[in-house]
Design brief:
Rossmann fold; flat; 8 strands; 434 Repressor (Amino-terminal Domain); alpha/beta; 3 domains
Length: 445
């Protein structure tokens, strides 16, 4: 996510991060490089120029030149200005109304149908809502089928009427069905086109007028850069939507849309899509995104994901096993499963300060745990609970069963031993440190 922009901004700010003399000249040169980095990320020239002018004005007005740590102060100014440019504070979704009606809009291929499913899943699992998906794309039967597949995946009902070619009538019928069957959120997936056209705009304007949604979201493919911003403006002129959804942020995106869309349409980015899975959806926090762009990581989001998966009862069981030296590979496997539930490994690593830069160029595969799981699954229950029993002949059998080598098994045993020792150390202080640490994580926001 934003790898190229992060690298270029890091290079631009490198001079000021050093301990050399800071002058008005090299502040200006640094900001020239910052502007170039933003333009390369497909940020509009006017926005990039205004951005660097504001940072320069603040830098010279806040005595950056005489500061003891001018580089750090400069990075903070860039981060604060980036945060402001992307919207300042996070904006929630409006769930008033009985039911709450959410209208999805956007071009074909923007990920609108998939995101409708992700949003339904998010509202069902995180907000304790009962959503209904309504298929109003009357031009592509495949879009209706796709929504049904998505709904089945996440356990959410989909309302559709394939014989009906009137999206206004379908959306009204869907809302009536929701009211009659106890659904408290209705998500309406509308038709997209390959480009903005008059017929499309008239149609979605008619749906909007007929159903009066509490929330109208514009879904945009973040990889289309400045084009995405222009499309958002066209839609906003007709719909006056409430917020933007940026999809495909896990792809090779330059980031221009995320950075400049708020200042062009003056509407907040509310959600981002960060992967293909149905739980790959995040509320958009401008300050956290600014920190990630500048390579500072995003510890708060990482902690939030960890606490979502933290099982207090499981932690207690593991604590007792560690205390009795009975921590085995089955417990190790359950820890891996919890990590996997937190999201893609590459995304998680990007949340750790400095890790994104250190891992640049490395392809972190989500199947990174596959060979570890294969090795553990090739062990007998006795071997899993008592790793010390793994002698040469047992290792040979496990290697053959898991399609790995004895060297990989030895490496796993070494890692497992190190992890066990570390967890044992954390058990000090009356055996409560681990629980205290996890409890503290749970309380962090």
């Amino acid at each position: 996510m934003f790898d190229n922009l992060s690298e270029k901004l890091d290079k631009a700010l490198h001079v000021l991060k050093g301990h050399g003399q800071i002058t008005e000249i090299n502040v200006a040169e640094t900001l020239k490089e910052v502007r170039r980095a933003l333009l390369d990320a497909d940020v509009n020239f006017k926005i990039a120029k205004e951005f660097t002018n504001k940072v320069k004005e603040k830098a010279l007005g806040q005595d950056v030149l005489t500061s003891l740590q001018p580089g750090q102060l400069m990075v903070k100014l860039v981060k604060d200005e980036l945060t402001e440019l992307m919207g300042g504070d996070a904006e929630g979704i409006n769930l008033s109304g009985t039911p709450s009606i959410i209208l999805m809009s956007g071009l074909q291929g923007s990920g609108k149908t998939t995101f409708s499913g992700k949003l339904a899943n998010f509202l069902q699992t995180k907000k304790n809502k009962k959503p209904l998906l309504v298929a109003c794309d009357v031009y592509r039967p495949a879009a209706i089928d796709q929504l049904h597949v998505v709904g089945e995946q996440i356990g959410v009902e989909v309302f559709s009427d394939k014989g009906n070619n009137d999206p206004v009538a379908i959306s009204k019928a869907g809302i009536a069905h929701a009211k009659a069957n106890g659904f408290n959120v209705v998500i309406i997936d509308t038709a997209g086109r390959l480009a903005v056209d008059e017929q499309m705009m008239t149609e979605i304007a008619n749906i909007h007028k007929a159903i009066q949604p509490q929330e109208t979201l514009f879904v945009v493919d973040s990889m289309t850069g400045q084009d995405a911003v222009n499309t958002a403006k066209s839609f906003n002129d007709v719909l006056n939507f409430d917020g933007v959804v940026l999809t495909k942020l896990d792809g090779d995106t330059r980031g221009g849309a995320a950075i400049s869309i708020k200042s062009v349409v003056n509407k907040p980015i509310k959600f981002i899509g960060t992967g293909e899975k149905m739980d790959a959806i995040d509320v958009f926090y401008p300050s956290r995104m600014a920190e990630r762009i500048l390579g500072m990581g995003d510890v708060v989001s990482l902690v939030e994901r960890a606490q979502e998966q933290f099982d207090e009862e499981e932690a207690r069981k593991i604590q007792k096993k560690i205390a009795k030296n009975k921590f085995g590979f089955d417990d190790f496997l359950s820890q891996i499963q919890q990590i996997k539930k937190m999201g893609s490994l590459k995304d998680l690593m990007g949340m750790i300060p400095g890790a994104g830069k250190a891992l640049k160029g490395l392809d972190i595969d989500d199947d990174a745990f596959k060979h570890i799981e294969a090795i553990i699954h090739s062990m007998t229950p006795d071997e899993r609970s008592t790793p010390a029993k793994l002698n040469a002949s047992r290792k040979k059998r496990i290697a053959a069963g898991s399609g790995t080598s004895i060297q990989e098994i030895n490496q796993l045993l070494k890692q497992f031993d190190q992890m066990s020792k570390m967890m044992k150390m954390m058990q000090g202080g009356g055996g409560k440190k681990m629980m205290q640490m996890m409890g503290a994580m749970k309380g962090m926001k």
